[in-house]
Amino acid sequence: MMENREIQSILPHRYPFLLVDRILELEPGKKGIGLKNLTAGEWFFHDHTSYPPPLLLESLAQVGGIILASKAREENPQSRFIGLFAGVSDFHWQRCPGVGESIILKMELSKSLASLFRFQGEAWVENEKIAGGQILLSFVRTTPGNSGSDAAKGS
Amino acid sequence: MFQALAYPFPTLMIDQVVEIEPAKSLKARKGVTANEFFLTGHFPAEPIMPGVLTLEGMIQSACILVGESLTRGRVQAALEKVERVRFKRAIVPGDALEFWVTLAEKKEDLWKFKGKAQCQEETAAEAEFLLKVTVREVGFEI
Asked: What residues of chain B have any CB closer than 8 angstroms to a CB in chain A?
């Protein structure tokens, strides 16, 4: 279990794009379950009544980022990294979640190839699976003394 | 339901009304998420829901209860007085917040409410406040 403040120490994302609230279960480098509440005051509910599908992908990807980053931190607390969305395949939506619902974001690493990681992602609301598919993330560790300015983003 | 509450973005603090007993009590829900505007500065790297907005949620729940209790006329409810508020626990992203309000007393146009905010069965805040309710009769004019 990981509270939001810890998430903020791992992910560089902030408002308006921090789309995961809490981690319920985590096995660093393997799988994790995240939680995202949808509430009425969020910016995308201006002109939508449901959670926009691309943002659901982003929520899942952020859980994936935490899974990979927590593994890197476990091995070396000073490690710096940069994670980027690399792709999506076979992702199906049953429906889009709406205001007042809590989305359970399940991500499990299925394959890794060099710096590319393929996850099996699923989004649930209570006992209903609302979407699922494969998400590809690219995750690169940069050594601490490296002068690359982008690397700082991941810390 | 939310047209009844004339609160536009971004101060709407309720997502769903779960239970309602006109002129008695109401239960509403709000899911607290990291992606809310007030959590960016309250506080950087340490998101905690501002207590006043928890109070706001209880007040909005009470306003809905007022609207559902009166069937005639155009109803307006305004905050008159906050008697007592106690914050007992920090509310953080990921919490499912529940607002319970009960009508405690009615004196002329002043309605007194007791409110409670709970997260996962734990009381996070308690409040007592008064709303001033005005009803404007609407009908045909001759």
From this structure: 2, 9-16, 29-37, 39-40, 45-47, 92-96
Encode chain A (155 residues) as per-residue pLDDT tens digits. Answer: 899 999 999 999 999 999 999 999 999 999 999 999 999 888 888 777 889 998 999 999 999 999 999 999 999 888 888 899 999 999 999 999 999 999 999 999 999 998 999 999 999 999 999 999 999 999 998 866 554 444 444 43
Write out the CATH class of domain B21-135: alpha beta
Candidates A9, A16, A39; nearest CB to B32: A39
Q: Supply φ then ψ for residue B106, to 5 degrees.
A: -130, 120
Beta bridge partners of B117: B99, B125
Q: Does A93 touch chain B (CB under 8 A)?
A: no
Question: Which residues, other chains included, contact A48 with Cβ-Cβ below 8 Å and sequence gap of 6+?
Answer: none
As a whole number of angstroms, the distance between CA A33 and CA B62 comes to: 35
Domains for chain A: give ranges and CATH numbers: 4-154 (3.10.129.10)
Interface contact A36-B33, CB threshold 8 A: yes
